[in-house]
């Protein structure tokens, strides 16, 4: 399966490859390679999600870039822990909801396009934010563009209800996804660890 956002790219590259192949088979090599990369990049691997209201799942595939304790004053409104996940061009870029819950907060901020692995990219790059509420738990998910990524895609809006592991969007061509959780969540991942959206448990309620 692949994300529907890839259809236009695939159609254009397929047509270009065909035209160039008719002209000369050698000319089609480059666009065919790009076509294969686009199909690979926009892949949407199936995930067997095991719902658990006490677990916080990763919202993205990638590598944990940092884990920081912060003051979050827009949605959680208190001490929180921010887990930053860097997505390379080789990772699937589908974003999934970390928890069951309703989207009760949204925010979009235009910005720059620094490489997503830069520590300050989160503060100045283009960013889309969802605030998901599940009973007493509030969680923020930031979709952040990178040097190559130039478009954030989000399928849902304020008021929508998300199932844990449900796809809510993607970021095109390299990016960073951040999950911000209350400070009383026990974090189970560490810097440098590879995670999978909808599969890896990144945090758990301490009374679980």
UniProtKB/TrEMBL annotation:
- What are the record keywords, sorted? Cell membrane, Decarboxylase, Lipid biosynthesis, Lipid metabolism, Lyase, Membrane, Phospholipid biosynthesis, Phospholipid metabolism, Pyruvate, Transmembrane, Transmembrane helix, Zymogen
Cofactors needed by this protein, per the record, are: pyruvate
Transmembrane as a keyword? yes
Q: According to the UniProt entry, what is the EC number of this protein?
A: 4.1.1.65
Q: What does this protein do?
A: Catalyzes the formation of phosphatidylethanolamine (PtdEtn) from phosphatidylserine (PtdSer).
Pfam families, per database record: PS_Dcarbxylase (PF02666)
Q: How is the cofactor bound?
A: Binds 1 pyruvoyl group covalently per subunit.
Q: What is this protein called?
A: Phosphatidylserine decarboxylase proenzyme
Which species does this protein come from? Desulfoscipio gibsoniae DSM 7213
The way it spans or sits in the membrane comes to: Peripheral membrane protein
């Amino acid at each position: 399966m692949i994300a529907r956002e890839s259809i236009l790219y695939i159609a254009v590259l397929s047509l270009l490859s065909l035209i160039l192949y008719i002209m000369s088979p050698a000319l089609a090599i480059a666009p065919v390679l790009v076509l294969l990369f686009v199909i690979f990049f926009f892949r949407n691997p199936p995930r067997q999600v095991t719902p658990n209201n006490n677990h916080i799942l990763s919202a993205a595939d990638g590598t944990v870039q940092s884990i920081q304790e912060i003051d979050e004053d827009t949605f959680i409104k208190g001490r929180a822990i921010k887990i930053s996940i860097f997505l390379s061009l080789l990772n699937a870029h589908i974003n999934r909801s970390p928890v069951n819950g309703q989207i009760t907060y949204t925010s979009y901020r235009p910005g720059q396009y620094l490489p997503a692995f830069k520590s300050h990219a989160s503060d100045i790059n283009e960013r889309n934010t969802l605030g998901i509420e599940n009973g007493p738990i509030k969680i923020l998910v930031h979709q952040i563009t990178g040097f190559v990524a130039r478009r954030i895609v989000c399928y849902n809006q304020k008021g929508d209800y998300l199932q844990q592991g449900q796809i809510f969007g993607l970021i095109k061509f390299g990016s960073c996804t951040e999950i911000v959780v209350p400070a009383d969540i026990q974090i189970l991942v560490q810097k440098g660890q590879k995670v999978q959206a909808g599969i890896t448990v990144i945090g758990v309620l301490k009374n679980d």
